[in-house]
Design a protein that fits this description.
By secondary structure, this protein is an alpha+beta fold. 16% of the residues lie in helices and 37% in strands. It is built from 7 helices and 28 strands. The strands form 4 sheets. It has a 15-stranded mixed sheet that branches. Strands 13-16-25-17-24 form a 5-stranded mixed sheet. Strand 1 and strand 2 form a beta hairpin.
Length: 417
Amino acid sequence: MASSIQFLIAFQLLFLVFIAASLSHNPTLPKAAIFPVSKDPSTHQYVAQVFMSENLTPINLVVDLNGPFVWVDSRFRSDSASQKPISSFSLKCSMAKPIKGCYKPSGPEYNSKTCTLQAENTISRISTSADLNEDVMAMEFWDGIGSGSFAKSENFLFLSAPNLLLKSLANDVKGMLGLGNSRISLPSQFSTAFGFFNRKFSLCLSQSKGAIFLGGSPFESQISSSMMSTPLISKKSSLQKGYYLDVSSIKISGKKLSLKKGVLEAKISTIVPYTLMESKIYGAFVESFVKEATSLNLTLVPPVSPFEVCFSSKGVENPRLGPNVPTIDLVLQSEMVKFRILGRNSMVFVNDEVMCLGILDGGLNAKDSITIGGFQMEDYLLEFNLGNSMLGFSSLLMGEKKCSDFEAYSSSSSAEV
């Protein structure tokens, strides 16, 4: 009997060893990395929380969709030795495209040990030189079921910038989080650090909270049949960098605007609260929108700054899709592919009696014909694929979950990379 029991125990131990070995050789890779985003009510800026330094100190950064890198107030310092400067003649400096080259220069006015780049607050338009550093940055992983495990990159590159760049940023913000298509932006660095991620990221904004997803997203099954795709283009008329779309036409309630311009270049931006249109385009747009709105028995009222077109909201219902107002379509590469703006993303309720059109005049000398602002992107899932230069987009307004429904940082566990 004793020998039988010993055999049974030995068999069970052997079985457990076999299971453990199988799991170690077939690990479950995470589907995405997650950074939570909240909307600051006073500035309308979208603020992401990241964890930096050896102690994983939480730090708030304004999301700059087109920013080429992350920059942080130079007063932010690690309590450890994890933060290190990057040499001006190193490979990492060369990859970052510094303003003074990647060689050892001569002259007393230049510190040859420091890799220097031009950092910009794209909201205040203040720019200055800043030093390139590396430090620990951590993120939460989502495994397809839930979030919980953390991982960190030991050598994340960022700029340490003078605190004068913090002007006009939300309270408690210490810099800006760049998601642009550069070699040292957040998506590019984490794709390199964690080889199982593709060079793509998704943006999910809302009036309260949302998230940035690197790699996949928890909404893929919900929007798999409704997602549209369009090419991301480079701006044709200048060297200005950013994510742009070709807009072939604009429609209001299905009626095409008569515009003298041909294809319009539309920039996507998280630092502009509301969509901007160049003045001549805006004039034709507003004329058509007001005409269609009055046919729906909406009543014009005096505008409330910064808005230029406002309506009475008395008796107007505000369901999940927003009030019943003219539908706006930005038609892209074909009539079948359009970025649709319903009442939820076109009308701003400024008080109990007034709602205003959240699309503004960008001026006669606007740099871009159209700039799609943050309000128009809320509760849309936008997937930026940097590998094939495509944008996927889908509204979440009709789905089971919206951007504000996703909960991140449900655990404090940490795994080192």
